[in-house]
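Re-run with default settings, no changes from the original entry. Doing this only to confirm the output is reproducible before filing.
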Amino acid sequence: MHDLKARRWANVAAIYCFLLLLSVLFMGPFVFAFLSSLKDNPTEWPPSLLVNQLRPANWAASYRLAKQGGGNGFTGGMGPGGSLEFEVTYWTSPDQEPVPPDIVIPKRVQGGAVMALRVTHWAADYVQVADLEEVRREPSADGFLTTYRFRLVNTGDVALDTVPMDLTVPMRQQFVSATLSPNRIERLGRTQSWNNVSAGLLPYVFGNYARVFRENYSVSTGRGLFLLWIRNSVFLAITRVLTTLLFASMAGYALARLDFRGKGAIFAFLLFSMMIPQQVTFISNYLVLRDGVFGLSRLFGMPTLLNTYAGLIISGLVGASSVFIMKQFFERLPASMEESARIDGASTYTVFFRIMLPLAKPPLGALTILTFQGVWNEFFWPLVVITSPADKYPLTIGLLNLQRAYGSATFDWGPILAGTFISALPVIVLFIVFQQYFVEGISFSGTKG
């Protein structure tokens, strides 16, 4: 008996470890992408899971420095007359005399020329370095650790959003630590660079995410593009979900419960359309939109449906697979429910909207997830239909713009990863909310009787 229990527990442990391994394999890339989206250099080699932005010591330091500078501890900034204190430690060999760092407040801003055009006050014009002094010198392994302290003072009467800083020391004088970890170490370790020493907690941790919203804006209107892209995708996804739920449920009910001439032919055509790849109908769909659905849109003053949301919505009002799922579900329901309602004098519309549709929550939940995910992640067709301006792009096309802006020439992949992670969140949240309906809907629609 004891051996039997031991074997059972061993089997349970083996299954648990196997499932845990699968979860790591599936979730590992997602977690690694999120960690990389927080890094200053996501392409570092070798890759590491250690992220400065996730160290509690840096959280406390970024909050404290912003408060010292007269800004907000969470959102950052340096107020007029603000002053913040900074320490940095270097290692030197016994035969080398430590040299204080050369401290420079550069005219630098993340986002390059795009953001430089929007800068009204450069920190370099107002911030001065004061009271640079050596505060400690301690022996260490094969050398000395020397700590320097200095203050950055805003001598102007303006509030500064960003205070970058560069420290440079001679060769062989190695950086050890600082009040706030640097964003980059360059020139063979001689130069340590900070994008913003008064960033505050949230911009320091989620710097790449803030850049996605701050650095992408419309040249013509000046509005932030990333929020517009999210709004456009939400509008398209919700509209397509509503049209799919309405038309798929009505068509599925008609094919499953009503008797009319040509019903078998329509269902056969429905199955046939599910077998045709989208690439086959791509050109014909494009021509239909270009000509305004055989010219009918001209009646409403629209010569073409290209570069319009109406074109995207009309071309995907409902999918054949959605109708098929609803048909399979309605066929599974007992006919006695309809017969009782019809005996009481209920019409077909009353039976559908008052009795059958409320019972269809599981497949409707499944269709909500599938349709929303499909529209939210759709790329090729919106790329063809929506061409300009950038304000009209859905999020997937906007992410392509991010790749062109940050990845092609500058290899600045942090904002690209941040934007990609943001685009994945709505689908994850939707699946968590509707996962029960999703599982039930798929299982119910696949069985009959």
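Residues 52-205 form one domain. The chain has two domains: 52-205, 225-445.
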